[in-house]
Design a protein that fits this description.
alpha/beta, 8-stranded parallel β-sheet, 13 strands, 35% helix
């Protein structure tokens, strides 16, 4: 398991802790992953939900909290690792968040839940690394083509999210079955073929990071042997003491079994993988009335949406696991105990 170079910076351990919102991966988790030599990632999805003005000045509250979480991660890391922030393209405040992040002491901006075709414009003049999340070679080609033509640059690395990932999945409901049958290795090969032309033009490699179902040391070694440069792991980091989620949230993973995990509907318009709890079972086709809205997602229409995903994720993050939405990867049921980030990273690196 070798270090990799990312835009002149060295990631000693080729493991990226995936961004998880709302408030599942904040400064504490990210900082401890960095301390071990990996890349910690803070989710920009409502880190400020505890701020007093969250409902009235949502963007300002989130940016304020995000800044504090970044500083926390940097302090915990003791100068080790790299720091990223994950921003959903579907966010209405996407441009504002990205513009602010260009001024923050982070290394990379990772962006998914949509096609971040205009991302370079929002961080112009900064040395920030940019990494889109894709689920197909077609998406990788489109992003590279647009960035090349409009901004004369290509991604600093690409995260390839496979069908076993948690949270919002990068495909439509119509393509659900076909995507679930695709293997992570097949998607990796597909993306590799699409980026070669851009690597040749710019005379540099675009590192490929694979995500979705990576759980063990053996999983990591296998996908690295197939040509991946690094892996991104999210769900498994929930089972750590340092994860920013409430204890009840973590316990929900220890308590669940494989049959408890499934695909559910999201107001974003994408399928999502979650623990099928009382909240999800209650989504019976009728809309849940939304009394307060912070207008956070571009595709969301409060009058027609089945539920408020922000409120559902906040409830879960607070520990209200019956009435909240708990996103998970397909292997979430395999978490059977809470360990330290140090223990988990050691196991992922060595297999011991």
């Amino acid at each position: 398991m070798n270090a990799i170079e990312l835009k002149g910076k060295t990631l000693q351990i080729p493991i990226i802790q995936g961004g998880m919102g709302v408030a599942i991966s904040l400064g504490n988790l990210a900082g401890h992953v960095m301390k071990e030599g990996g890349m910690g990632v803070i989710s920009a999805a409502h880190p400020g939900f505890r701020e007093e003005d969250f409902m009235t000045h949502n963007v300002a509250a989130n940016l304020r909290a995000l800044h504090q979480e970044i500083l926390k991660a940097r302090k915990i890391s003791q100068g080790n690792g790299l720091l990223g922030v994950n921003v959903m393209t579907a966010s209405r405040a996407y441009k504002e968040i990205c513009t602010q992040l260009a001024k923050e002491p982070i290394d990379v901006l990772i962006s998914g839940a949509g096609m971040p075709v205009d991302l370079p414009a929002y961080v112009e003049g900064s040395e920030l690394m940019l990494a889109p999340i894709v689920s197909s070679g077609k998406a990788a080609r489109l992003i590279c083509t647009v960035w090349d033509k409009r901004y004369h640059r290509i991604p600093d690395f690409i995260v390839i999210e496979g069908p076993l990932a948690g949270g919002h999945l990068g495909f439509s409901k119509e393509n659900l079955n076909a995507h679930l049958e695709a293997s992570l290795e097949d998607i990796l090969i597909e993306v590799k073929k699409e980026v070669i032309v851009f690597e040749t033009k710019y005379q540099r490699k675009i590192p490929l990071v694979v995500a979705g179902g990576i759980y063990t040391h053996e999983d990591i070694e296998t996908i690295l042997s197939k040509g991946a440069d690094a892996v991104q792991i999210a769900t498994r980091f929930i089972g750590t003491y340092e994860c920013d989620a409430a204890p009840a949230y973590k316990q929900a993973f220890i308590d669940c079994v494989q049959a408890d995990i499934g695909i559910t509907v999201s107001p974003v318009g994408l399928p999502g993988r979650a623990i099928i709890n009382e909240f999800v079972l209650g989504l019976d086709g009728e809309n849940h009335r939304i009394s307060k809205c912070v207008a956070c997602l571009t595709p969301c229409n409060p009058a027609a949406t089945p539920y408020c995903i922000t409120e559902a994720l906040i409830q879960a993050a607070k520990g209200n696991v019956k009435d909240g939405l708990i996103f998970t990867g397909a292997n979430g049921y395999r978490i059977n105990r809470i360990v330290s980030v140090h223990q988990l990273m050691h196991e992922l690196i060595t297999g011991d």
